[in-house]
């Protein structure tokens, strides 16, 4: 039986801003860009009471909460804090899988501290994070990754939740399906139409029927509904690239349509890149998949995320369409050897979303 801790910082970017600017502490605040197209990266818990959420357009958030203070993000500070909390994790275990700047799985199965009590280890890690960074974290403690992740959300902010092996069955039974990572709102809605609301409903069904609704996802959902997850904590490897792509609901043909999709994908690429720590860009690339399922990629050297470069690359890629329609549009970044100087350059040369 494994002991997994999932740690997740509370309203991370916003918490850092409140820490560094005490005037903001009792106000509803959000972190985001100031551009007209801007969306919130996150917001503090005061703003959440008004309904503000991550990824919400600025103007919509302002409507819900007219006093909302939107501050610019400072990625370099968030990255430094992220590095700091990872150093704290490393004191407890070397089996650490970071999921983003503010979130990680820790496997503490072999850890002898506190007579091996994962509950007390999690408590201690959160306390150490608070003492060293003045920021709060929440934790989930469970026998596997899936349950630990759900648990860390249960008592947010500044709380923790333990699902001991004997509690797994009861916890999972009444778990709403949309709480399961990987089950998005649309999938949950589809499942609900067939009477699947909680894990109990899924358990009473079978993989074959679930497959007709979910395809490949069915078997995972079936196992999760019994609280089963045998995925190991993956100690992170060096990344060579990052890609975001979109399969279109309807095939497209024109360059303008491709450009339109690119504009929608770009903030996602920037956001995913911002969440990585210590990578510097060496290449930009694009990908098109055609209606016959063949695909083409074009790339160029680049040290930052440059919109004009993507446009040039798509112009080249679309020349290869030969009357085929386009079913998928993708953007990629290739990473090179890390040097501190280049890293700083690339961080400064694109907007923080
Ligand atoms: P989360 O852990 O999802 O959110 P959070 O830490 O702000 O709030 P919570 O207390 O619910 O955990 O994401 C961590 C950071 O990642 C968040 O502070 C900002 C950034 N982020 C974005 O930039 N865009 C997004 O859509 C999301 C979800 C997060
Ligand atoms: Mg968080």
Features:
12 strands, five-stranded mixed sheet, four-stranded antiparallel sheet, binds magnesium ion, binds thymidine-5'-triphosphate, 353 residues, 14 helices, 40% helix, alpha+beta
- Rounded mean pLDDT is 92
Bound molecules: thymidine-5'-triphosphate, magnesium ion
Number of helices: 14
Q: What radius of gyration results from the CA coordinates?
A: 22 Å
Stretches where pLDDT is under 50 for at least 5 consecutive residues are 339-353
Describe the largest sheet: 5 strands, mixed
Structural class comes to alpha+beta
Shape annotation: globular
Can you give the helix content as a percent range? 25-40%
Give the spatial strand order of the biggest sheet. 5-6-1-7-8
Count the strands? 12
Provide the β-strand percentage band.
15-25%
Reading the helices and strands in chain order gives EHEEHHEHEEHEHEHHHHHEHEEHEH
Distance N to C terminus: 41 Å
How is the topology of this model organized?
Layout: E1 4-9, H1 12-20, E2 29-32, E3 40-43, H2 45-49, H3 58-64, E4 69-71, H4 75-90, E5 96-100, E6 103-107, H5 118-133, E7 137-142, H6 145-154, E8 160-162, H7 168-173, H8 185-193, H9 199-203, H10 207-214, H11 217-224, E9 241-252, H12 255-275, E10 281-290, E11 295-301, H13 307-318, E12 326-335, H14 340-348
Parallel strand pairs: 2-4, 7-8
Antiparallel strand pairs: 1-6, 1-7, 2-3, 5-6, 9-12, 10-11, 10-12
Helix pairs in contact: 4-5, 10-11, 12-13
The protein binds thymidine-5'-triphosphate and magnesium ion (MG).
Magnesium ion binds at residues 8-9, 12, 102-103.
